[in-house]
Amino acid sequence: MATYAIGDVQGCYNELRQLLEKIEFNPSSDTLWFVGDLVNRGPHSLEVLRFVKGLGDAAIAVLGNHDLHLLAISQGNPRHKDKDHTLGQVLVARDRDELIDWLRRRPLMHHDARRGYSLLHAGLPPQWDIPTALACAREVEEVLRGPRFHDYCQRMYGNKPDRWSAGLRGMDRLRFITNCFTRLRYCDSKGRLALGEKGAPGTQPKSCLPWFMHPKRASRHDRIIFGHWSTLGYHAGDNVWGIDSGCLWGGRLTALRIRKKKKKLKPTHLPCKGARRPG
Q: Is the pTM of this model over 0.90?
């Protein structure tokens, strides 16, 4: 019985199946933790969704920004639309409604207390410890699964507010939470989100730090697995593991074997041809 965290797939179905063959994944006994961004930009978003959904309890998938983008388009939000023309296959599929309903019921964060690891797509602001993060994730998850889903999809985009306050209310609060879990890479010394910074560490302004390196990060003693950051590549350090190693862009697709707290985590990488090229 093995558990593997899988990096951003983004519609690269063939590479996903090759990686699972490489680690000898057995759906009857093993479990996969998907770090988000199952869809978009790659050629086979529909096949990826159907496959992961079909794994049932053998798969846990948290939501990424591209997954939320699909949900927003499904609800008629015209912002950004389908620029890459890779989500249309999902939106016209015979099982479209089942897939969208399944996707909107995925969590923003998964926490395994027994193993001592948390799974999310992007990052956590320095002000949040794990209990706070889980509570905030549930707030957005309840909206995604409830009658406010359509309205949320119309209003979720935006970079403000950029700093956490327990007093945030309404869509401002939901948008901040969403941005942390699905878009965050850098924040400044005061804990403000720097959502415009997307490059590898070293390219950002001196005022910004990778979210996991903030000296006042309340979650610094907790083990966190995340994706979203292909320019970072595979990262193991600072009590975090970044596993978006850029499959879509001709990098690698990563599977990280999850073990008990004191055991070293070992990645398995699959070299990828790349469905897209940067730029």
A: yes
